[in-house]
Amino acid sequence: MGFHFLGIDHVQLAVPQGGEDLARGFYVGVLGMVEEPKPPALAARGGCWFRSPGLSLHVGVDPHFTPATKAHPALLIDDLSALTEVLGSHGIPFREDDEIHGLVRGYVHDPFGNRIEIIEHGGAAAAKPVP
User: Fold this and answer.
1) What's the distance, CA 33 to chain centroid?
2) Sequence-ordered alpha helix ranges (H) in the chain
């Protein structure tokens, strides 16, 4: 084909207008990400950007917001049990899923109802090579 995708630069999730502080509370306060400044031309639109090693997540304001309950990012983590302890300490439910043999994973929803899959890195089904 002459080109190859190299990875994903970032994932964007939508939030309702005025949801930035609640997003910060979840993505920084619970998940431990770091907020990074948006370029000035984009900051006027609202929203916020978060980063963690190997991950960039953008939260964008959508005036017609509907939570993404099916479409979702799948984030890799090194210790899923540590994350579930943190989520539990904040009263945030985590639903384990064992439908894929050898893959340790589950789902959490952000404060807006957006579904986020969390996969423990190193599971047998993780990072399958593309033929």
Assistant:
1) 10
2) 20-27, 40-43, 80-89
- Predicted model pTM: 0.89
Does some domain include residue 130?
no
Range of the domain at 54: 11-120
Contacts of 29 (CB under 8 A, 6+ apart): none
Number of domains in the chain: 1
In a domain, 131, yes or no: no
Identify the bridge partners of residue 34 per DSSP, sorted by sequence position: 51
Residues 54, 63: Cα–Cα separation, whole Å: 29
Task: Report the CATH number at residue 62.
Answer: 3.10.180.10
- Per residue in 42-57, pLDDT (tens digit) is 999 999 999 999 999 9
Q: Could you tell me which of 131, 111, 127 has the C-alpha nearest to residue 13? A: 111
Pair 80, 118: CB distance under 8 Å? yes
CA distance linking residue 3 with residue 100, whole number of Å: 31
Averaged pLDDT of the chain: 92
The answer to the question of residue 47 being in a domain is: yes
